[in-house]
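Collaboration report, partner site 2.

Our partner group contributed sequences for two proteins of shared interest, and the home lab folded both. The records are reproduced in the order in which they were received, starting with the first partner submission.
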Amino acid sequence: MTNAAWETLSDQAIGVSGVVYFLALLAHLVEWSSLRGTVPVDAAAASSTRSRAAVGAVAVATGPTEGAGSGTEESRQRVALFGRLGLLLTMIAAVVHLTSLVGRGMAADPNRVPWGNMYEFTLSGTFVVTLMYLVLYRRFALSWMAPIVVAFVLSMLMVAVIWLHSAVTPLTEALNSYWLVIHVVAAVIATGAFTLGGMTSAMWLVKNRKGDIATGPLARVPSLATLDRVSYRIHAFGFPVWTFAVLITGPIWAHEAWSSYWNWDPKEVWAFITWVVYAAYLHARSTAGWKGKNAAILALVGLATLWFNFIGINFFSTTSQHSYADSAPSVVQPVGQPVGQPVGQR
């Protein structure tokens, strides 16, 4: 296949994945609409959970048992059917999504990783969010999160296609390094984890207004204690990965590209701010015993700084040395670098 054919395949694949994500969202919305009048999932599953001797830190009912209680057998079957359908469609969308990323990399000459501009970063970041959701689906019983994750990924893909799309170009010299793979892989994994953790914290705040006795769609959501515990564990996983990306690989790569470990670049500063917020969150949880509302709010503050750094800096900053990662890939001279000198050398 030619480079143009690979690029066309990538563009078509991301369009198809968007359609499949949309169908998955519809399936999950039908699933949730069938939960009206049901009792809380934790209450409905209490007896079966006790009889099982399951020792998981996070255990809530999934599959056909969710939404059990006052609902009819027919409604329970409908919930289970559309839940499985939504999960299957999400898996298919993730595979097509990955095909789009592979196509972007293969379309470049020479072939490269698909992380050359904001469009490609956004495709990669949303794919990792979906992948982490699917990987953690059973471990943390995340079926309740399905419509939130799918709606988020679909919205970000629409933003990427409408406002961030750009043609495939070779990597700039500053990006053409093996540190790109090490740094970006760590950063996107942490971003996916923090995003899922933030969704869990946001749902804690929503359910806190109704309490654990909430009925209807919120009955599918685990108890407040479970949400708080899941959020903490996901954040605890993402933080060391983010630390590796921001405080280890980032400075090393910056020194290789710009002969300085720290340049007070806006993206560097905001990445560090994000690190400080999440460090404060984990420290407060482990030492001050912060749980519930305060912890959830602090986690959402961290998520806001994370995504502002990911996308916002490219639109609001004109001095960033990371300007090669904006929506329109072009060679932009870093501040203080002589005109005509290649990016990445000074």
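Second partner submission, folded after the first:
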Amino acid sequence: MLNIGVLGAGHLGKIHLRLLNQSDKYNLIGFYDPNSKNADKVAAEFGYKKFDSITQLINAVDVVDIVTPTLSHHDCAIEAIKAGKHIFIEKPIANTLQEAQEIIDLAKQYGVKGQVGHVERFNPAFLATRHKIENPMFIETHRLAEFNPRGTDVPVVLDLMIHDIDVILSVVKSPVKNINASGVSVISETPDIANARIEFENGCVANLTASRISLKNMRKSRFFQKDAYISVDFLEKTSEVVKMKDAPEEPGDFDMILQNAEGIKKQIYFDNPSITANNAILDELETFAEAIKSNTNPMVTLDDGTNALKVAHRIIDCFNK
């Protein structure tokens, strides 16, 4: 088992601590949180070992799980890498592209592995349909959340939309050609609602909407490709796959048939996948352990996290034009 320690014991940090503590691929050594009052409370309530400094924690483990605010990701990662430790970093990988590139370069220099916590890649609804998404040409995503002060230190693009950016980049194998976007600050100092249109060189277009001031929660993506429509509900963990094929010469009474203006008939049928329930956060952490032990690439590499951040910053740059 790999010895692991967690930096940050906030809302998500406590989830990581609980899951790592029950994992059979890690040995949870302890955690560090700069807020001594919160650290004492977490240690007393759950029994996890509390470290007095980042350096002490890093020196005691093989893997460092960075679940701190985005602004501190870079400094935590650099110190861990220089100590020869593998790093798991919650999304986004860093606050700036320069910071992200420094993390990538240093990880290569020291020969350590890194994974970014883009958890939706491990969502069971997406895992069940991922192999069915082939060359999508139009994608629409909606990620809406009720207001929560946590996370408002960064724009909604880095807080919420980046999940969908990463998913889209994982299925569209083409460079980004053009981006148009707009964002509005309603409550926070940074945009709380944003819409972006990403055009890829292969002709695919993705339309993304993210809001953290919605009256309801929604995390849906729709993928349109030749002869298929795929819907993934990341919140409800359900998916729907609607496909079309040439209609039979003699359709059955219950066959759904469409005929276009040219007289071509298509049959609509459902190819909904079986969804296996999982804990996405536990899965992403444990697949990282497997990548370390087998010396293979993590599921979401540092480069993947940086590419998502690059697109996110291009979207944010549109707000200031």
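Feedback sent to the partner group on the second submission included the following. The mean pLDDT is 93. Residues 302-319 form the longest helix (18 residues).
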